[in-house]
Amino acid sequence: MLLSRYFLPVLKENPAEAQIASHRLMLRAGMIKQSSAGIYSWLPLGFKILRKLENIVHEEQVRAGHIPMLMPTLQSADLWRESGRYEAYGQEMLRIKDRHERDMLYGPTNEELITDIFRTHVGSYKDLPMTLYHIQWKFRDEIRPRFGVMRGREFFMKDGYNFDVDHDSALHAYNRHLVSYLRTYERMGLQAIPMRADSGPIGGVDTHEFLVLADTGESEVFYDSAITDLKIGDRDVDYDSYEDCATVLKEWTTPYARTDETHDDALFDAIPQERQRKSRGIEVGQIFYFGTKYSEAMGATVVSESGERVPVHMGSHGIGVSRLIGAIIEASHDENGIIWPEGVTPFHCGIVNLKQGDSETNAACDALYNGLRALGLDPLYDDRKERAGGKFATMDLIGLPWRITVGPRGLNNGVVELTSRRTGHSQEMPVETALERVVAIYASH
Ligand code: ATP
Ligand code: MG
User: Fold this and answer.
1) Of 7, 9, 308, 338, most Cβ neighbours within 10 A?
2) Looking at the structure, do residues 221 and 364 belong to the same domain, yes or no?
3) Is the pTM of this model over 0.85?
4) Using a 6 Å cutoff on CB, does residue 286 contact ligand 1?
């Protein structure tokens, strides 16, 4: 993308309404614009990152064997009356009447809708196990929307639902989700720690929240520092193997890690003192096993192998896709702006032309720009007639992990400069070497 043709409305001043870094930086980097309390337009840069995260979530869900679909944002109240949640959900649910005075609602989650689809079309254990998911906008009329996309009213969420014939099979689905979530967050450059949690209005018997550690997080968390050493990396986990998934779950749930809702002083005190950590965290996902709560209420049954009709065992699993953008920024920024991890960066590399219009710098920048694109990368070329300082400030603010700076003095010596946004470290090298370096960096992302 040529910056001169892009729409990147960066702000010079810090917006007064933003209390935390991620909100401030998203506004300043021209990623979002508030349209009303807790509801945002996603400007091109913000939208690009949202799509990237969505793709990572899709890839990891499909890899785990889960099936993508799409359900509507608007739902009929009737299904929610069947489960008993129409009244129970309270004021967070946005209730709407259509022209025929029928009660509708903007979905805060989808257990009822998916259970209805399931009971209509599935009747035998032979069709199980099955996990369906979608990534769709949700609405919760939060009493205090704040911190930008972190606690919005309208937000983008992946929600998945597993259907299993019995408890053991549903447990495998739970474990499988835990593994796929760990992978998802790691690809985004995040460490999200699964913590035993409270099930809230979804209801259920087993649940873990995934928390990213950050001072600005809304949850208070207590954990054994040993858990922060764990990594999924590229280890081979067979998602169809109960054993493989259960092993990962055991590894991640053995060190103590709980939110304040389930915190237990005695268990915490049993951890060696030097490993006890109290901190704050941002909830970026949650998995639930709730058994037959919805299937019994709504009559979602299957015929089991022994010929009996049994209510199906279910769980639901959510990832806060739009909140994740805020969480990534909270975990990765400095005083000059955002620092995107390579796995989610909106553009792979920035190109800064220090003397726009000069035939040599223009030619070198064009060669880099076209070269990177030909190799499948997506560079952002600042081809504006701006002062160098302004160009650097914009690049630092929007946080591309790599920048190539092209100026007449360097070109006289046959070099350009490759700079890491994270370390600030710069290295001079010929144009072709810079290109190869950037390609090599992204070969693993
Ligand atoms: P919270 O405790 O933060 O209100 P929740 O536990 O009610 O969230 P879930 O029902 O578990 O939310 O939804 C799954 C994920 O959706 C959450 O882990 C979170 O990342 C995201 N999410 C929930 N509410 C919001 C919101 N108001 N704005 C942005 N993301 C949200
Ligand atoms: Mg939750």
Assistant:
1) 338
2) no
3) yes
4) yes
